[in-house]
Amino acid sequence: MKPVRRDLCPRFHFAVELIGRRWTGAILYVLSEAPARFCELREAIPGVTDPMLTERLRELEREGLVAREPVPGALSRARYALSPKGAALREALDAIGEWSHAWLPASKRARR
To answer: Are 45 and 27 within 8 A, CB to CB?
Structure first.
């Protein structure tokens, strides 16, 4: 019998930790639908605070998943959009959504 491999790939571990941080999946999901301004993200994600949203957006920008695009004619306003690297996660996010509908009770799916 072949032994089970227990090594954890560092890239996989980093990716799971990055995407699994609180609010990150929700931010990526909302941005996968369309680019959004900060206030639109805040409204779309119940319970997220301004400081936490700011922190997550900066982290996602540093990792190259989200791009901050200045809004023309509006001082200090920006829209956030998925980069190609971030958009490549769409299939994984869809798979998680399908899994949640198949395996989680409605009470947990509806909880915010």
So the answer is: yes
